[in-house]
Amino acid sequence: MHSDPTIYDLPSGWRLATFDELDSTNAELKRIVVAGKDHVEGLIIRANLQTAGRGRQGRAWISPPGNLYASFLIAAPEVSIASQIGFVAVVAVIDALAQVTDLPLRCKWPNDVLLHGKKICGILPELIADAMGRQWLVLGIGINLQPVKVADSAYPVTSLAEHGISASADTVVRFLAQDLDHRLGQWREHGFGPIARAWSTVGPQPGEIMAVRLPGAAGFLRGRFHGLDGEGALLVAAADELHRVLAGEVLFEPMPERRAGVG
Ligand code: BTN
């Protein structure tokens, strides 16, 4: 763990713009890409608060002051492997948070980071094309540094402060830029293998029971975790069949108590 964050600067080529307030850092970065001004890889937009923070699956991301809200611009590879960047991001978030806490961080497929089973970080990757037709990935990352009061939350949430850890958004975003830079380099040089292996050390273990809500499905897929495939799809063994899940949501515990199978 580092004790003096001020010496940790941005990696070469990365630039950080900090706003007091934005509707959403992802929305702002997408506006910059569409307007075609200064949209270079490594541009980071951070806001102290968001008035219309967005989460996955159309949910809102409650964004009071005190937490980290940042979006990172990444030159996107072909669409078939763009989803791998979400895993690169999760691993980088865990690397970055390991610099401020020893607490056991875990991840939940595809892009959540959990602390003691509660969500502490969410990631919203969005693909967007610029005027030249070039594809970019806007990687939005929200980390709860302070407690967040979410009325009627769909899932349990926690924060670093609730575990006695004090860290500023400015410090954490710089750690994150360094770890993202490192993990992106590793991914570009060596492919998905090292990222998937790093994810697996903090992700579900093979054979672990899980329930997945599939898009548009009334029920859940219940089964045992069987690993990730090369695209980052979730492999779930259920009722003697191996299911490949590209989109969906793994439920938080307690999960529905039923036998394995699609229910
Ligand atoms: C999730 O639902 O888990 C994803 C949450 C992503 C929140 C971050 S905060 C910074 C960026 N700007 C947004 O509007 N959303 C993402």
CATH topology description of the largest domain: BirA Bifunctional Protein, domain 2
- The CATH architecture of the largest domain is 2-Layer Sandwich
Large-scale geometry: globular
Radius of gyration: 18 Å
Tell me, rounded to a whole number, the average pLDDT.
89
Q: What CATH first level of the largest domain would be assigned?
A: Alpha Beta
- Unreliable spans are 2-7, 255-263
- The tally of beta strands, per DSSP, is 13
* CA-CA gap between termini: 45 Å
Instruction: Name the beta content range.
Output: 25-35%
The domain count comes to 2
Order of helices and strands: EHEEHHEEEEHHEEEEEE
Helical content band: 10-25%
Q: Write out the strand line-up for the largest beta sheet, numbering strands in chain order.
A: 1-2-3-7-6-5-4
Report the CATH superfamily of the largest domain: Bira Bifunctional Protein, Domain 2
Compute the number of helices.
Answer: 5
Largest sheet: 7 strands, mixed
SSE map:
Elements lengths: L14 E8 L2 H11 L7 E8 L17 E8 L3 H4 L1 H14 L7 E4 L3 E4 L2 E12 L5 E9 L25 H22 L1 H11 L6 E5 L6 E9 L5 E5 L2 E5 L3 E2 L10 E2 L1
Parallel strand pairs: 1-2
Antiparallel strand pairs: 2-3, 3-7, 4-5, 5-6, 6-7, 8-9, 8-12, 9-10, 9-13, 10-11
Helix pairs in contact: 3-4, 3-5, 4-5
How would you describe what is shown here?
It is built from five helices and 13 strands. The N and C termini lie far apart (45 Å). The relative contact order is 0.15. Helix content is 24%, strand content 31%. It is of the alpha+beta class and 263 residues long. The chain has helices at residues 25-35, 79-82, 84-97, 169-190, 192-202; strands spanning 15-22, 43-50, 68-75, 105-108, 112-115, 118-129, 135-143, 209-213, 220-228, 234-238, 241-245, 249-250, 261-262. Mean pLDDT is 89; it is low at 2-7 and 255-263. Strands 1-2-3-7-6-5-4 form a seven-stranded mixed beta sheet, sandwiched between helices. Strands 8, 9, 10, 11, 12 and 13 form a six-stranded antiparallel beta sheet that branches. It binds biotin.
